[in-house]
Specification:
Layout: H1 20-34, H2 36-43, E1 52-53, H3 65-83, E2 93-94, H4 99-109, H5 118-142, E3 153-154, H6 158-173, E4 177-187, E5 192-194, E6 199-215, H7 219-222, E7 233-239, E8 250-253, E9 258-264, E10 289-293, H8 297-304, E11 308-315, E12 323-325, E13 332-337, E14 350-352, H9 358-361, H10 364-367, H11 392-406, E15 409-422, E16 430-439, H12 446-453, E17 458-460, H13 463-474, E18 478-479, E19 481-482, E20 493-495, E21 501-502, H14 505-518, H15 522-525, E22 546-548, E23 552-553, H16 555-560, H17 562-567, E24 577-583, H18 590-602, E25 607-613, E26 616-617, H19 634-641, H20 643-652, E27 659-660, H21 663-685, H22 704-725, H23 729-758, H24 764-784, H25 789-796, H26 825-851, E28 860-866, H27 868-875, H28 881-885, E29 889-894, E30 898-903, E31 907-908, E32 915-916, H29 930-942
Parallel strand pairs: 1-24, 2-3, 7-10, 8-13, 17-25, 24-25, 26-27, 28-29
Antiparallel strand pairs: 4-5, 4-16, 6-7, 6-12, 6-15, 8-14, 9-10, 9-11, 12-13, 16-18, 19-23, 20-21, 20-22, 28-30, 31-32
Helix pairs in contact: 3-20, 6-14, 12-18, 19-20, 20-21, 20-23, 21-23, 22-23, 22-24, 22-26, 23-24
């Protein structure tokens, strides 16, 4: 007889091989037909909202792996909140303006900003940006992201642009915006000012020099020293940017540092002193004296290779106003006091070029220093004559040569150090004093308000608070203007008569109205008169003729204004947003530029919580770059393995640190996915004849191990929900995997096979198992849904098992299929004790298998001996333990603890594969045990 045909073997259309690249597009079509986003919004109408505001990526290329990580994390949170019952409107956005788009377009056009017509270029830039918006949108949709894809926000939309100008108008009216000539980050290659967030620090080789400034009148320092009237005094200065000496106007010392007047400790000619620069002039008198910070003398001696003897010492404040001779120009440089001088490096004497440094510039007002700036927009010197036409590198070499000729270099070497670079073109930047528009972060006590406001924000991880705090404390005024073409123009005007540049609220209000109707291109195409109020005159000289200014707004101000242009301006959203979620670099980027104007205008943070993730790196923790050849494109992973594996990757890692990805890591995730999928497949396969509406059971009527599994499932549910709630997705995925791989596959599903396959289909024991499997699957499928969205929807679509269910897994809520009364701590403790015994028994069985005494656990019978309470406890489970151990028989006796494994007595039942002494008693079914005979006889009656 073919006994296999009499078994209740699994049946399901849920395939073992997912073939995700082919399956996922079908699920996407299902969601499209359901209009899933709007269906969920309608389903949750009137419920409490959860607003995750989407930070806009730049629309200048296809999405990369970092984009995928970011959007998937947002989608996981939103789907979790949706299934918690929240209404979760999610409006995706794109940053369409700014240097990234402009830079990429110029690259494609093979042109520079001096080769194009601005109006024509802006049209091309718009088309360029919108082309990549569409490409990125399709990639994001392919990841399974839920959003209102037909109505995203673009920073180039006229309504958005008008809101940005409206926000700027408010800040101007409240006095936050001012125009000043200050040093800003400047990229000569891109010819524009850069925001702090547009600067990245990379290693750079620089010229490190110790040079001399000669004191013009040293008598002030020699009053208390030896008779040195004929000696020369020099200040020792250290710099890594020799070219900035062209703009030097002073030398700074720290007022509280101790400074020393030193001489060389021996009279060896300078050219013979070990370490003395070979470019130092032969015959410099060795009776010269040098000024430097006392605490830095050992460091300088080691660096230069000489020994100094201290002649005199004094506080830095004594040096104030002393005149020094510029090392190669016929002008003097006064000694000034500054508290920003480092006690850890250099010489304690710092050369000051206010046109090339923020700290240097801070001394201008106090000492009436000149701001020399002969470096043009392209990083080319317009003067002095000997440097005119030189770039920075060429000018640097000329400065070094002049210093060598004058004998003023004591040490010259090349060093590798961290230096600011333009994040777009990767070239070193400079600090360059230019006239720009700034937002004053201290106006109306704004900085302190920002620091107070971030205390009420939930930072995930918590270290984000300290990072943001430190950045706000030290941040300079915000430079808002850029010298580019592609962006929202700052509607400022210049008086023809006096040259005054004016940013007026009335002009801004007019610009906002016009931009809303015609877009910001209108500033370049319409006559200025369209923007000027009637009888408008210069605030400075009273004249009435003006020219347009063409600076554009910092793109970060645009994207930061999304709290005002989107969150406060969209009918489905609520301000402030519940969460902002971006990469950790956005503490100095989008988080900060959103916070500043929001607190200035709305008096409140634009976000209640901030979650950050690390950068994506390769297996060796190296940043991904095309030059390194370690880039992994999300599109290639989707094509080979499916978006589901990318989603699992995003959730599987602790994203509070940098996130690794490699082909090997992807393969490991494929294995993890396969194990989860196969667990689900087994459960589905064993529910093919289970109808919950007809087979609903009460918990108390279930087999005890089934009740235990319901209880453990409730514990599992609570753990996973807790991890989701804390945004610890990697812990949630870990719990899910362990539940599937250990508690289910290695225990429960394994021991159920006999009951599911061999018992009568309608038997109480089999229905008990199916009842529990049904609920385990319902709960498990919901818990994987935020991460493995495609798979969860596929499972939910198995209509044979889920008749009458919602049309999507996401319409349902987590708590719908959970009964808190299933949790039974007392039962859990009993079964943890049984499982502990099971582990011991299985180890002993494995030993017998290794000896060759038995081939499988079903060939074994187990003898257990216990004393006292253990005997009472385990003997009550004697007739269940054979199922728990998957053996043919278990016997329990009194005595010292013992586990004895023997080969089972009797014959093998060809139907259930257990060894029984009753096999062969029935002549009709001579190869089966009595238990199987009863099932077969019942089956014959039903047929």
């Amino acid at each position: 007889m073919d006994y296999k045909s009499t078994l209740n073997l699994p049946r399901t259309n849920f395939s073992m091989k997912a073939n995700l690249p082919n399956l996922e597009p079908k699920i996407l079509l299902l969601w499209q037909d359901l209009k899933i986003y709007h269906r969920l919004r309608e389903e949750r109408k009137g419920r409490k909202k959860f607003i995750l505001h989407d930070g806009p990526p730049y629309a200048n290329g296809s999405i990369h792996i970092g984009h995928a990580l970011n959007k998937i994390l947002k989608d996981i949170i939103l789907k979790y909140k949706i299934m918690q019952g929240f209404d979760c409107p999610f409006i995706v956005g794109w940053d369409c303006h700014g240097l990234p788009v402009e830079h990429q377009l110029f690259k494609e056009l093979n042109l520079t900003m001096h080769d194009v017509d601005i109006v024509d270029f802006r049209k091309k830039a718009k088309d360029f940006a919108l082309k990549f918006v569409e490409l990125q949108k399709q990639d994001f949709k392919r990841l399974g992201i839920f959003s209102d894809w037909d109505n995203p926000y673009f920073t180039l939309n006229p309504e958005y642009e008008s809101k940005v100008i409206e926000l700027l108008e408010y800040l101007v009216g409240e006095g936050f915006i001012h125009r000043a000539k200050l040093p800003v980050n400047w990229c000569g290659r891109c010819e524009t000012a850069l925001a702090e967030a547009e600067v990245e620090y990379l290693n750079k080789e620089s010229d490190s020099i110790y040079l001399l400034f000669k004191a013009i009148d040293p008598k002030k320092l020699l009053e208390n020293s030896r008779d040195t009237a004929l000696e020369e005094i020099y200040f020792l200065v250290w710099t890594t940017t020799p070219w900035t000496l062209i703009s030097n106007v002073a030398v700074a010392v720290h007022p509280q540092f101790d400074y020393c007047l030193v001489e060389f400790n021996d009279k060896t000619p300078p050219s013979k002193v070990s370490g003395w620069s070979t470019c130092a002039r032969e015959g410099i008198p060795m009776d010269k004296l040098i000024v430097l910070a006392k605490d830095l003398i050992p460091q300088v001696e080691e660096k230069i290779g000489v020994k100094f003897r201290v002649v005199d010492s004094f506080k830095g404040v004594k040096l104030e106003h002393l005149k020094l001779q510029h090392p190669f120009f016929q002008r003097s440089s006064p000694v000034v006091l500054a508290d920003f001088i480092s006690p850890d490096e250099g010489s304690g004497c710092v050369h000051i070029a206010p046109g090339h440094g923020e700290e240097d510039f801070s001394l201008v007002k106090k000492y009436a220093l000149s701001v020399l700036m002969t470096l043009n927009d392209k990083g080319i010197f317009d003067g002095p004559p000997e440097f005119k036409g030189s770039g920075i590198r060429e000018a640097n070499d000329k400065v070094l040569q002049k210093l060598k000729e004058n004998g003023f270099i004591l040490k010259h070497e090349k060093i590798i150090h961290s230096y600011p670079h333009c994040w777009r073109c990767k070239n070193p930047i400079i600090f360059r004093a230019t006239s720009q528009w700034f937002l004053d972060v201290d106006h109306k006590n704004l900085r302190n308000k920002l620091l107070e406001e971030i205390k009420g924000v939930k930072w995930v991880p918590k270290a984000g608070f300290e990072r943001m705090k430190a950045m706000l404390i030290s941040r300079p005024d915000w430079c808002l203007s850029r010298q580019r073409y592609w962006g929202i123009p700052i509607p400022a005007v210049k008086c023809k008569a006096c040259g005054e540049i004016i940013l007026d609220r009335e002009i801004l209000a007019a610009a906002g109205r016009i931009f809303k109707k015609n877009g910001s291109d209108s500033w370049f195409s319409l006559d200025l008169a369209e923007f000027l109020p009637s009888k408008f005159s210069c605030h400075h000289c009273g004249q009435t003729e003006f020219l347009k200014e063409f600076d554009i707004l910092d793109v970060w101000f645009e994207s930061g204004a999304s709290f005002y242009a989107v969150v406060k301006n969209h009918s489905s959203l609520e301000f402030p947003a519940d969460m902002y979620l971006e990469g950790s670099d956005q503490h100095r980027g989008w988080f900060q530029v959103s916070l500043i104007p929001s607190v200035a205008k709305e008096k409140i943070s634009p976000f209640k919580a901030v979650l950050t993730h690390g950068f994506v790196v390769d297996a060796d923790n190296k940043k991904m770059s095309k030059s390194s050849g370690n880039v992994i494109a999300p599109q290639s992973i989707i094509k080979e393995h499916g978006a589901e594996i990318l989603r699992l990757w995003a959730a599987y890692n602790d994203v509070s640190v940098d996130v690794k990805i490699s082909k090997n890591i992807i393969r490991q995730l494929v294995d993890i996915y396969r194990k989860i999928r196969n667990t689900i497949r087994f459960i589905l396969g064993n529910l093919y004849d289970f109808d919950y509406t007809k087979c609903s059971l009460e918990a108390k009527s279930l087999v005890e191990v089934d009740r235990f599994m319901l209880s453990k499932t409730m514990l599992f549910y609570k753990e996973v929900i807790s991890h989701y709630e804390n945004f610890s997705f990697y812990k949630a995925v870990g719990e899910i995997f362990n539940f599937c791989n250990q508690l289910l596959s290695s225990f429960y599903l394994d021991i159920l096979k006999d009951r599911l396959y061999t018992f009568s289909p309608d038997s109480q024991d089999r229905r008990s198992a199916q009842f529990v499997l049904y609920h385990i699957l319902k709960i498990l499928n919901k818990l994987i849904a935020p991460v493995l969205s495609f798979t969860a929807e596929e499972v939910h679509s198995c209509r044979g098992e889920f008749k009458g269910e919602d049309e999507s897994i996401f319409v349902s809520t987590f708590d719908k299929d959970c009964d808190p009364q299933w949790l039974d701590e007392k039962l859990n403790r009993r079964w943890e004790k049984i499982l502990c015994l099971r582990d011991k028994v299985l180890k002993e069985i494995e030993k017998e298998r290794e000896k060759g005494i038995i081939a499988s656990s079903q060939e074994a019978e187990v003898l257990l001996k216990f004393e006292g309470e253990d005997y009472s406890f385990y003997s009550s489970y004697e007739y269940n333990l054979n199922e728990i151990f998957i053996v043919s028989r278990v016997t329990i006796e009194k005595g010292d603890f013992q586990i004895k494994i023997e080969k089972a007595k009797g014959e093998k039942c060809l139907r259930c594969w257990n060894y029984r002494e009753d096999v062969g008693r029935n002549s009709k079914f001579p190869q089966t045990c009595d238990r199987c005979v009863k099932v077969l006889e019942q089956r014959n009656k039903q047929e």
